[in-house]
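Database export, one record per block. Field names are fixed; values are copied verbatim from the stored entry.
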Amino acid sequence: MTLRECYAALGGNYDDVVGRLRSERMVRKFVLKFLQDGSYNLLCRSMAEENYSEAFRAAHTIKGICQNLGLSRLQDSSSRLCESLRNGYTPEAEELTKKVEEDYQQAASAILAFQEANPE
């Protein structure tokens, strides 16, 4: 699996991120670090604990990381969740959280497949 194929699988914008980070090597470095970021786990834990201010912070962080890495699908869903939680809990937050979870799992699976196909 190439990095371009990885981006296609995770719903990202490969050309945009290569243009921003200037090389495929840099994209690879940062996209692999994405899996180490704890924001997704914080989001899930905060939603389960009904700590919506912390969930907002986690969704906002995910949105920013995804924007920088060109992870378009996850950026979109985390952005919608972020806005939903901006002023505390809203009824749509539960459904939006499920969408973020789905998009995150898809992104993580694609990145793991890329990593397995391209060990350093």
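Remark 1: Helices lie at 3-10, 14-21, 24-34, 39-48, 52-69, 72-85, 92-117.
Remark 2: Residues 6 and 46 are 29 Å apart (CA to CA).
End of record.
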